[in-house]
Prior knowledge:
Blueprint: H1 6-26, H2 32-61, H3 65-95
Amino acid sequence: PNKMKPSDRRAWFQSETTRIELEKEMRTLIPASEVLSVYAVMAKTVVKTLEVLPDLLERDAALPPDALEMTQKIIDQLREDLASMTYQACADAINGDDDDNGDEGQEEEQE
């Protein structure tokens, strides 16, 4: 658009504004605040479930103490990874970094 004539640039920006409004109306473009809100509810639900999982396994499945300890370590690591990856994704979004690293570099040794 920067290389267009002013009248063409204006028409282009108007068409983009109209396109964005249409996508919002059709719900193919969702406001970031709404995405963050839904993600926050989902993350809280997952974390809450992970917090009580060892107690449920102890009570309902009669899991032995060593298995519960291992379960707790795995859950703690998962929570740390979730927090770290969430923080990184937010930082990337703020900085405009759209690279999706997937699972690269996520292999770690289990203790």
